[in-house]
Design goal:
Layout (H helix, E strand, L loop, with lengths): L6 H7 L9 H4 L4 H13 L9 H36 L5 E4 L8 E4 L2 E5 L2 E6 L2 E4 L3 E5 L7
Antiparallel strand pairs: 1-2, 1-6, 3-4, 4-5
Length: about 140
């Protein structure tokens, strides 16, 4: 009869610290935290001096602004991800650009796209061409003779 329990696995699986978030995640307040603070404030307010209407409206306006900023941030992140897809569509096409300090344009086929500090570059050979320097994009045509 083996009625032994492995204590090491029991203590790891049933620890109260399994769902604890790191400090970095706790330091950011979100809309759920704001609502929790507001409801706690309403539940524990002094009955002889209740929350004034203007204060409550101001807090609700702040909450609404927070929610809209959160939604805007999510939409911007989604847009930034789709932007890379648009730039990637140029891979395999021929681009023309005028390098800084040069008078005549250069031409080459895009082999990749790079992102550094929020700025996008086309990779042509060993060069990184800033998007704003590209003056023309053409389909590569191969003529057989």
């Amino acid at each position: 009869m083996s009625n032994w329990i492995d204590v090491t696995t029991v203590s790891k699986n049933n620890s109260i610290y399994n769902n604890v978030k790191p400090y970095e995640q706790k330091s950011v307040l979100g809309k759920d935290d704001f609502l929790r603070i507001l409801t706690t404030q309403l539940a524990h307010q002094d009955p002889s001096s209740p929350l004034q209407d203007k204060d409550f409206i101001a807090q609700m306006a702040t909450f609404s602004s927070l929610e809209q900023m959160t939604n805007l941030n999510k939409a911007f992140d989604k847009f930034a991800g789709s932007q890379m897809n648009q730039y990637a569509a140029v891979i395999g096409k021929e681009v023309s650009w005028t390098p800084a300090g040069a008078t005549s344009p250069k031409t080459g086929v895009v082999t990749g796209v790079s992102n550094q500090d929020g700025n996008y570059f086309y990779i042509v050979g060993n060069e990184k061409i800033p998007m704003e320097n590209v003056t023309e994009i053409n389909q590569v045509t191969t003529e057989t003779k």
